[in-house]
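Risk register update: the risk of archive-format incompatibility is retired. Evidence:
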Amino acid sequence: MAEAYVYILGNKGGMLYVGVTNNLERRLYEHKTKATSGHASKFSIDRLLYFERFNHIVDAIAAEKQIKGWTREKKLALIQEQNPKFKDLSKGWFDL
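Archived output:
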């Protein structure tokens, strides 16, 4: 079984980004170092606010699609359940 993750990132301005990956640590490193171009990199969306682990990538992709369809308020409520202070859950993972 290969694990997979759905995650929500934020930036200091309050923008949110929902993504999916099979390697959360590697993907966060890519976001923090802007190793890939795109929306998250352009707007410095690199603070891990929420994540959920799944046993199968198809389940993580389904969750990502569902969350992307939610209102901003519903996404914020999901984050608040796990991370009420909206801290960067990946703080201290990397020596950047």
